[in-house]
Fold:
Amino acid sequence: MNETQKEELTKKLFEIAKKEIGITYRKNDAPLPNAGSKIGGMPDVPQGFVWPWFSGKAYGEEENVSRPLSFLGQINLRDVAHLDEEGLLPKTGILSFFYELETMTWGFTPEDKGSARVFYFPTEEELSAAECPADLDESLILPELALDYQSQISLPDYGCFEADMAFEYEDYETCSTECGYTYDGWGERTKLLGYPDVIQNPMEEECERVTRGYRCGSPEDYAKIPEAEKADIKEKASNWTLLFQMGTISAEDYELMFGDCGHIYFWIKKSDLVNRNFEEAWLILQCG
Structure:
């Protein structure tokens, strides 16, 4: 790639760049305030909240077992409103994320519905700490960690980038770095919004397919989709956007890893995000 082509590619990347809200975490010496942003611990929930459960098979199991989901973390949206330049998220309230860590579903089949949940609580003053379900194993409770946020440039994965010019991965990596972006190849990045750090393949079409009731994961699964619907699925895939990505969580003697250095991605339809409907968010897990 010559200098002219390099400049052209860098310009294209700046044109399609998004802003993501990077999340880092740390151990806090004092207990965190009610409705504070955090990873782990116990969620702050409204009165009457029903803890979510999921019935599925963990590795080696032959029958479904019903288990409580683990609480991953909560975001007080006041903390990130100034970083949400497009105004995609509500300005106030709490977003709370749950996932069942024993089955650790991949999100490739409609039966995974309910294994991950997102709750939005608009009024933080009405919240108080939930009681942990007695059936939730202590090893599946994440340690309570305080959060810090930073605005970061976000770019699509090399395999997802479309351009009317030829270039190699090394060229893309070089230009992305010059734009201020660094690829997360070790499954460590946790963030809100932006493009996903793809490990395997684009996920938008998978979200559209599986939420229509079609299993993903093999050519045989794809062949079962009526031909008339395939084009519509491809078109509607662009309606999905990344809400939240979580990478490996490491704190002192605790580590939570998704597969082998993987991420979990909470996806949401753009229309649902606008309407503050988080009930139909869909989770996909990818790893190396």
Notes: The longest helix spans residues 3-16. Residues 113 and 282 are 8 Å apart (CA to CA).
